[in-house]
Amino acid sequence: MRENGLDELVLDVNAGKPFPPARRRASTWSLSRHYLRPHRRAVVVLSVLIVADTAFWTCSPLIAAQFVEGVAGSAEAGRLVFLAYSFLALGVLNEVVALASGRMAVNLAQRTTNEAFPT
Predict the structure, then answer these.
(1) pLDDT tens readout for residues 14-65
(2) Are 67 and 77 in contact (CB under 8 A)?
(3) Where are the domains of the chain?
(4) Whole-number Å distance between alpha carbons of 42 and 64
(5) Among 12, 95, 112, 116, which is 20 to 30 Å from 81 by CA?
(6) Crossing angle between the packed helical segments 28-36 and 77-116, to the nearest 10 degrees
(7) Are the beta carbons of 91 and 39 closer than 8 angstroms?
């Protein structure tokens, strides 16, 4: 027991002795698998959305860099317009994917916690 009193021993009411340490504690991973197993499809879709969101965030600066290099190197106007529209489309698509993944994550969290701790 610590001196600051944060860690108190849990006493068995009947015997007045501390409980023995748990033999085997469930890991966080096994608990997560247990609660997420019924929602396997949603977890896979959410994982794909998160990877897509990350990829979009990674690609946007690359397109912007090509645009800037094209302007500095006097590239043809058609290529610059294509890069500009690609950058805008990727930004819109990124926001849609981020919104969808956020909404799906919240719904998945609510469903799993409501099933884990029913009222």
Answers:
(1) 455 555 555 566 677 787 788 888 889 999 999 999 999 999 999 999 999 9
(2) no
(3) 30-112
(4) 33
(5) 95
(6) 90
(7) no
pTM for the full predicted model: 0.66
Chain segment 52-95, per-residue pLDDT in tens: 999 999 999 999 999 999 999 888 999 999 999 999 999 999 99
Residue 33 and residue 116: Cα distance in Å, rounded?
Answer: 12
Copy the structure tokens of residue 107.
């719904």
Using CB atoms within 10 Å of the CB of residue 80, give its burial: 0 to 12 exposed, 13 to 18 middle, 19+ buried: middle
| Rounded distance between C-alpha atoms, residue 109 and residue 117, angstroms | 12
